[in-house]
Design goal:
heterodimer; A: 310 residues; MetI-like fold; globular; B: 359 residues; alpha+beta; OB fold (Dihydrolipoamide Acetyltransferase, E2P); 2 domains; elongated; disordered N terminus; MetI-like (chain A); transmembrane helix (chain A); cell membrane (chain A); MetI-like_sf (chain A); transmembrane (chain A)
Chain lengths: 310, 359
């Protein structure tokens, strides 16, 4: 301690020390300042640049931007292009069905976690988290092996005589959906587990004592009380699957167009940066719109948590 | 004629208890947590299961409610064996220790829950919820959430929630634990009056002997999974069957003595009859002892400490062998102030009120 205070660089009430003190004091907004700076540099500034690309006509000559004028052309072109509408509809339905299926498959797992013993909980947690330790790309590639023409599924179907010739699963909407659900399932399960494992078992006992059947308890007590977890899980899964690029690109076989792969093509292949910028903006706005709806619905169903301090 | 019929009904209900617990055993793995528990509870009777934590009182309560199955013995309600009856079909209402109110439902929906689960028509539910809330004096709280209520109000909602389904047996698991001391004693008296007025057969679980003495028609003192003594509060207090019961309920003084020829000589010179022989333990309540100047008796000690408990003074008297004997006196009966470190002798007021135990 004595060494530090006697060090000439830090001694004296310099401006640097004051700033450092404020940052570390834990008061007000100051401790958040470093991350705010990072956010501005890596998110806000690029976003403004992106917008400026989308809302201007640019003339390029010999690799240099020679003129840039404000214009809504890219946006109006996009909105009048039927390809945009079908692509966004496909993205939306893919993301919504992924969210619904993740909830359908994830909820029983989270319920099992909530009512299970120590070992059940451990196994579920390991099985849920382990896939997150490998990259999404690797997990997506694994589906190629499983769903391919000579993959595990077709091999089993042929052996069992369910089909005569290999089913075409790869490079279809179904392959994309299966992959999406598997990749995003942990993101649904974890918030559900977080909410449901806090449940007081006595509430379930009370409900049974008051005459509710197992199903009645699930419908009237367990399900409504897990609404905050459902809301969080749905918001996360929707955001991730609505904007995902890897799964549709790999399992859709390169011609499956959703909003993200569309942006990729516009930016990387056809070099239409302005178009790509507008598509990105549309993706973001629509995503936010759905998130707001999810959040409103969650608030409606979790009104009871608000009155806690009243 | 009417009188006769009523009398008959009364004797009948006395003959057939509402709740019969017959030789119930329960194991957790190799550990036996309930051992041959037998108890009959009459119509409208309030019985308390009293004992320290781990004595099996909550286990027995949970077996009655059906959350756990007994490993041996049977539990009957109105003569019907409850063993094959699942939790949600038993005519039993449970008030949980922390009330277990549904946090996402309003007071009205909490109270109406049992009726909705039974498919009662909405109009009837509303009427019965209103009535139940009036019974516990919580009118006007229908649309509040449990988190917006005080501890005492939450407890009343929990009680209204089970009353609304008109259970045959009411089970209360340490219902006053979450309340502060002052509210606790008020609620104890209120709840006893309410249950008595409604005439519901009830089982209370508590580790608090004062609560048991306040609330109960009968107390079943439990020890290590067995019911040690089941009797009225008076009997438990004045004629405990074992030193364990005497020690658990009320304040008590113990000392060792020798029984010879059916007699135990008490330290102040009196003697008391007993059926035991050899080494015995003698117990006297502090209020059955009195202090006298040292020269007046042979049972002598030194006043260590005086404790003022409302209208009582409790003297802690240190005996030559190091044991402490507690003597209680009513404040206005005190002839003159006793100084600390004063040498005194102790006398037994009524030797018939002294208990002699084998252990």
């Amino acid at each position: 301690m004595a060494d530090v205070t006697s060090s000439p660089a830090i001694s004296g009430p310099g401006l640097g020390e004051k700033t450092l003190d404020l940052l570390l004091s834990g008061r007000g907004i100051w401790p958040a300042v470093p991350s705010i700076i990072v956010l501005v540099v890596v998110a806000v500034i690029p976003f403004i640049l992106l917008l400026s690309l989308g809302f201007s006509d640019i003339e390029v000559a010999r690799g240099e931007i020679v003129s840039q004028t404000f214009s809504l052309n890219h946006l109006t072109n996009a909105l009048s292009d039927s390809l945009y509408w079908t692509t966004f509809k496909r993205s939306l339905s893919l993301a919504l069905s992924t969210t619904a299926l993740c909830l359908l498959f994830g909820y029983p797992v989270a319920y099992l976690f909530a009512v299970g013993g120590r070992w059940t909980r451990r196994v579920i947690l390991i099985l849920t988290i382990a896939p997150l330790l490998t990259s999404g790309i690797v997990r997506t590639y694994a589906w190629l092996v499983i769903l391919g023409g000579r993959g595990v599924v077709n091999w089993a179907f042929l052996k069992l005589g369910i089909v005569d010739s290999p089913l075409r699963i790869m490079n279809t909407h179904w392959a994309v959906l299966i992959g999406m659900v598997q990749i995003h399932l942990p993101v649904m399960i974890l918030p559900l587990v977080a909410v449901m494992s806090r449940h007081d078992n006595r509430l379930i006992e009370a409900s049974e004592n008051l005459g509710a059947s197992r199903l009645g308890t699930l419908r009237t007590i367990i399900f409504p009380m897990s609404a905050p977890g459902i809301g969080t899980g749905a918001a996360l899964v929707f955001t991730l699957s609505y904007t995902t690029f890897v799964v549709p690109q790999l399992l859709g076989g390169g011609n499956y167009l959703n909003a993200a792969t569309m942006i990729y093509e516009q930016v990387v292949f056809s070099l239409e940066w302005s178009k790509g910028s507008v598509t990105s903006l549309l993706l973001m706005v629509t995503c936010l719109a759905v998130l707001v709806m999810i959040s409103l619905a969650t608030n409606y169903f979790t009104g009871w948590t608000k009155g806690r301090d009243a | 004629m009417m009188q006769n019929a009523a009398d008959n009904a009364a004797t009948l209900s006395q003959a057939a208890p509402v709740l019969r617990i017959g030789a119930v055993d329960k194991y957790f793995g190799a550990t036996q947590v309930l051992q041959n528990c037998t108890l009959d509870v009459g119509d409208g009777e309030i019985v308390t299961l009293l004992g320290p934590s781990g004595c099996g009182k909550t286990t027995l309560l949970r077996c009655i409610a059906g959350f756990w199955d007994a490993d041996a013995g049977r539990i009957e309600i109105d003569g019907q064996d409850m063993t094959p009856v699942p939790v949600n079909r038993r005519p039993v209402g449970v008030v949980f220790q922390s009330y277990a109110l549904f946090p996402h439902l309003t007071v009205a929906r909490n109270v109406g829950y049992a009726l909705r689960m039974r498919g009662t028509p909405a109009s009837e539910i509303e009427a019965r919820v209103t009535e139940a809330l009036r019974t516990v004096s919580l009118e006007g709280f229908e649309s509040r959430y449990p988190a917006q209520l005080s501890g005492g109000q939450q407890q009343r909602v929990a009680i209204a929630r089970v009353l609304v389904m008109q259970p045959r047996v009411l089970l209360l698991d340490e219902p006053f634990n979450a309340l502060d001391a002052k509210l606790r004693s008020t609620m104890q008296v209120e709840l006893r009056q309410l249950i008595k007025q409604l005439g519901i057969t009830s089982i209370f679980v508590t580790h608090d002997q004062e609560e048991a003495l306040t609330m109960s028609d009968r107390i079943a003192v439990m020890r290590g999974g067995r019911i040690e003594q089941a009797a009225t509060p008076d009997e438990i207090f004045d004629r405990p069957v074992s030193s364990y019961v005497a020690d658990f309920v009320g304040t008590s003084n113990f000392w060792d003595a020798q029984a010879e020829a059916g007699q135990v000589t008490l330290p102040d010179g009196q003697s008391v009859e007993t059926g035991l022989s050899g080494k015995v333990r003698v117990m006297s309540r502090p209020h059955n002892l009195r202090l006298a100047p040292e020269e007046q008796g042979p049972w002598r000690g030194v006043v260590l400490f005086q404790r003022h408990i409302g209208p009582l003074i409790e003297y802690h008297v240190e005996m030559p062998d190091g044991a402490t004997i507690k003597v209680a006196a009513i404040r206005q009966d005190r002839v003159r102030p006793v100084r600390d470190r004063a040498a005194v002798s102790i006398g037994i007021i009524d030797s018939a009120q002294v208990s002699v135990f084998a252990d």
